[in-house]
Amino acid sequence: MQLRVSSYEDVKESAQARAAQPRASRRLLLKVLLPLLALGVGFSVFGMYLTRLQVAAPVVAAFRPCVEKPAGLERWIQPPSDLMHSMSDEELFWRASWVPLVKKYPFKWVPKVAFMFLTRGPLPLSPLWERFFRGNEGRYSIYVHTHPSYKINFTSDSVFFKRQIPSKVSEWGQMSMCDAERRLLANALLDLSNERFVLLSESCIPLSNFNITYQYLIRSRYSFVGLIDDPGPYGRGRYNPNMAPEVNIDQWRKASQWFEVNRKLALSIVKDATYYPKFKRFCKPHCYVDEHYFPTMLFIESANLLANRSITWVDWSRGGAHPATFGGVDVTEAFLKKILGGQNCSYNNQPSSLCHLFARKFAPSTLEPLLQLAPTLLGFGS
């Protein structure tokens, strides 16, 4: 009898033990899974929050055009606020060649003169030019091309402040000099208000006040580029027969590199792909491409638009490959009166005594005497 009871109790305990095992396993499983589940939910919520932070702003920005007002005409007519860009010459020339085909301007427009300074470095006569430009804002633009290693440094109140363009090395007598001039023209063409384009050096000075200069250029029917047909060794003697048929010897011309052109001719220079390769390949020293490329190309393309003279006075009387350079002792009242007087030329097919608007070459030492004489003789700077 005892043996039977003992067996029953053993069986009962064994059954109870087996029944308790699943419950214990479930409790253990719940203790492990619940924290993992909570952690997973937490990570999911956090991930969704981060995703919303990263994606929400672009999604909103993508739909902004639906609520923004369309861009107005200002976007297209305003000149670049910063002349320092990252365009290559190829990109710059292409961009500068855009031409509005509707000639009537749908906005208030004041034509401007672009003053383009081609210099190796500093602008020592800038104080004189500051006085020349003073009070004439809105009628001029300034562009400065220097050696790429030189950075011009003017204060924010200067007319030359931030007027330097991206530049490359240019060498006298080399195609790189014409490249620099084309670069200046292309940057100036980005301003749709620029109608006349004057190339100057750091040694140039103005011979009249701004208003006279401005009216003279804006009202001119012609651009001021020389077209000398020199039969001698320094003219036709520099011609290379390999330039034909694009350029024949009877079309070969010579002039000073310091030109002035209107917008139409500036565009012709920038977009040229016909004559440029010929001059780059066959006009090498002692050809001096900067004296022949633009005069010859413009003579072939648009001779009827050229005045066949320069508006920049120089003195070649001392001989040599370069014109005379003047120092401080040369700049006297008598000297300036000599430059200003006794001139005869044609302006808009009429006789004129005002033939030169600028003069060169003036050394840095001429600044002080020029500043003193400008109010009485040049008409500005008082």
UniProtKB/TrEMBL annotation:
<dbReference type="GO" id="GO:0016757">
    <property type="term" value="F:glycosyltransferase activity"/>
</dbReference>
<dbReference type="Pfam" id="PF02485">
    <property type="entry name" value="Branch"/>
</dbReference>
<dbReference type="InterPro" id="IPR044174">
    <property type="entry name" value="BC10-like"/>
</dbReference>
<keyword id="KW-1133">Transmembrane helix</keyword>
<keyword id="KW-0472">Membrane</keyword>
<protein>
    <submittedName>
        <fullName>(wild Malaysian banana) hypothetical protein</fullName>
    </submittedName>
</protein>
<keyword id="KW-0808">Transferase</keyword>
<keyword id="KW-0812">Transmembrane</keyword>
<dbReference type="InterPro" id="IPR003406">
    <property type="entry name" value="Glyco_trans_14"/>
</dbReference>
<dbReference type="GO" id="GO:0016020">
    <property type="term" value="C:membrane"/>
</dbReference>
<keyword id="KW-0325">Glycoprotein</keyword>
<keyword id="KW-0328">Glycosyltransferase</keyword>
<feature type="transmembrane region" description="Helical">
    <location>
        <begin position="28"/>
        <end position="50"/>
    </location>
</feature>
